[in-house]
Specification:
By secondary structure, the chain is α+β, with helices and mostly antiparallel strands. It has four helices and three strands. It is 59% helix and 13% strand. The longest helix has 21 residues, at 76-96.
Length: 104
């Protein structure tokens, strides 16, 4: 009888030591779309510094900030998409001359 009690006690202790389930992270489509729109806006920002001699030095500030934020993305597939969107937005921002202009 004692053997039976020990076996039933060991079975219950095994079931109580089961691994906790990890919650699946699901992102809504609207949140993902908003994030992509923000990456386009941030990626298009440039800082253009013009010197007294007329030399213009464009710096892709938005790309640098966007890469910083995108590198913290949980899923690698999302990260690759965000990197691609940042690069496209950076090129659009360069030719459309979007961003801050500073004269030194």
């Amino acid at each position: 009888m004692a053997q039976t009690e020990r076996n039933s006690a060991s079975k219950t202790s095994k079931s109580s030591k089961a691994k906790p389930r990890v919650a699946k992270v699901d992102e809504q489509d609207s949140a993902y779309f908003l994030k992509l729109v923000l990456y386009v806006i941030v990626g298009a920002q440039w800082l253009r510094i013009t010197t007294a001699s007329g030399t213009e030095l464009p710096i892709p500030v938005g790309l640098l900030v966007g890469l910083l934020f995108a590198s913290h993305e949980h899923f690698q597939v999302d990260r690759k998409i965000e990197y691609a969107i940042l690069l496209v937005a950076t090129m659009i921002g360069f030719f459309a001359q979007i961003g801050l202009f500073a004269s030194i």
